[in-house]
Design brief:
By secondary structure, the chain is an alpha+beta fold. The chain is about 35% helix and about 10% strand.
Length: about 260
């Protein structure tokens, strides 16, 4: 992993990200490295050694100093999401995959670790910090990979679960706006419960919603900071959505067992 990976000629841009340019070269993915890259490569080695092969294999750096990982073939859904993403099977599979990722991070050596995002307390596991369908690889409508791990950092399990629920329940505004498939008939609260059940921890609905609000407000601040540093201007629109959604979801916490039509934006 210390040897540089030979640079190839044909680079295929992988679109959809807002923070880092990513290209595919053959069976590898290359992206800009940072001070956190050695830690993330060690983390990928750790979870793969523990049996979680649904994350990319770390392959060091290329001749340009970019991080290199293996390419996981399959479909990565865009947003708004395709109809098949909203099946209950995907909901259960995604919850179980996130749990397996978290469990595989236990025991990761934190000495000399450097993270792109700050750690959160309690540091139960290493959180993905952007666990969502657009960072999952699907084959035949089932999740078989978890990618873009570069923003991982220690934190509580529930923060990752809450963000996955935000995207898959769904409770995010952009799941409803302009969707090719009408998700308005879905019951977000029942789906949140099903996802939590698949994850396998006894979190109450209100706990997950409260973690979701915290996650979205932190994400809004981070997105604005990235935009200030010259990243995609779209991040400001995302930040505004996260804040508006956080306020709306916060109103559900006092009545988490009641259906709320506000969730159908």
């Amino acid at each position: 992993m210390d040897e540089a990976v030979d640079e190839a000629v044909d680079e295929q841009e992988l679109t959809g990200g807002n923070t880092t340019a990513v290209v595919r070269i053959g069976d590898t993915v290359h992206r800009a490295a940072g001070p956190w890259t050695p830690t993330i490569q060690r983390l990928l080695d750790h979870v793969r050694a523990g049996g979680l092969t649904e994350v990319p294999e770390p392959l060091g750096l290329d001749a340009q100093g970019r991080e290199v990982v293996s390419y996981l073939p399959g479909d990565v859904p865009g947003w708004p999401a395709p109809e098949w993403l909203w099946s209950t099977r995907v909901l259960a599979d995604a919850g179980r995959l996130l749990r397996r990722f978290h469990d595989a991070t236990v025991g990761f050596a934190l000495s000399d670790a450097e993270w792109r995002l700050p750690a959160a307390e309690p540091a139960e596991v290493i959180c993905h910090n952007d666990a969502a369908p657009y960072n999952m690889v699907f084959r035949d409508g089932r999740p078989v990979g978890l990618i873009d791990v570069d923003t991982a950092s220690p934190g509580p399990r529930i923060l990752d679960l809450a963000y996955l629920a935000y995207r898959l329940a769904p409770l995010s505004s952009d799941a409803f706006a302009g969707a090719a498939y009408d998700v308005g008939h879905l019951d977000p609260m029942a789906r949140l419960d099903a996802l939590t059940s698949a994850y396998g921890m006894p979190y109450a609905r209100a706990e997950v919603l409260a973690a979701m609000v915290d996650k979205l407000r932190d994400l809004a601040a981070w997105s604005e900071a990235r935009a200030d540093d010259g990243a995609s201007a779209d991040l400001r629109e995302h930040a505004a959505m996260y804040r508006a959604d956080a306020d709306r979801i916060a109103r559900l916490i006092s009545r988490p067992d009641r259906p709320d039509r506000e969730t159908s934006i």
